[in-house]
Specification:
The protein is mainly alpha-helical and 179 residues long. It has helices at residues 10-35, 48-61, 63-149; strands at residues 161-167, 172-178. It has a two-stranded antiparallel sheet with strand order 1-2. Helix 1 (10-35) packs antiparallel against helix 3.
Length: 179
């Protein structure tokens, strides 16, 4: 049997179901036409053994007919199995389509998040560079600033941090890197 193909259009699946139903109906009509005149006549008073013998006799006399009827019955059974499978696929199809749609939305959102994460990391690198340049200026000015104003020029460099986005492939993590 075929596996569920989410790309298969709904209309095509419905047309396959219609075709299966139509073929089953044709086979049932053909079977009915073959058996119209071949019913074994058994009365209610016949013993079970007599009824069995009558059907066996008819099967021996019409072996080709009964082989054809058996083939038709087997074909009907196979087509009904396929029909049930198609109905099952059709019932699962909306869920599968929703799942595929969610996966596509997720992939698009991940790509957008990746762009933002890369930009954050670029800005963080620039900010880290600027903070280090500012600290270098402060280190040069602080001794003179202490002498003139009796206080530090800039404080808090030990606790300055910038955000950084990292990923292990599945989970993204935003960490603060101390500059």
């Amino acid at each position: 049997m075929k596996k569920l193909n989410p790309g298969l259009p709904l209309e095509q699946m419905q047309s396959e179901i219609t075709a299966l139903k139509s073929q089953i109906q044709v086979l049932e009509q053909e079977r009915a036409a073959l058996t119209i005149n071949d019913d074994v006549i058994a009365s209610e008073n016949d013993s079970p053994l007599a009824i069995v013998e009558a059907y066996r006799r008819q099967a021996r006399e019409n072996a080709q007919l009964f082989a054809e009827l058996k083939g038709i019955d087997d074909a009907i059974t196979a087509l009904q199995t396929q029909l049930q499978h198609k109905h099952g696929e059709l019932a699962r199809l909306p869920y599968k389509l929703r799942q595929i749609d969610q996966q596509q939305q997720l992939e698009e959102a991940k790509k957008l998040a990746q762009v933002h994460a890369e930009r954050i990391n670029e800005i963080a690198a620039e900010l880290t560079k600027e903070i280090r340049l500012l600290k270098a200026c402060a280190d040069q000015l602080s001794p003179l600033y202490w002498q003139v104003y009796y206080k530090p020029f800039i404080t808090g460099f030990k606790t300055i941090s910038v955000p950084y986005v990292r990923s292990d492939g599945e989970v993204w993590n935003i960490v603060n890197r101390i500059v």
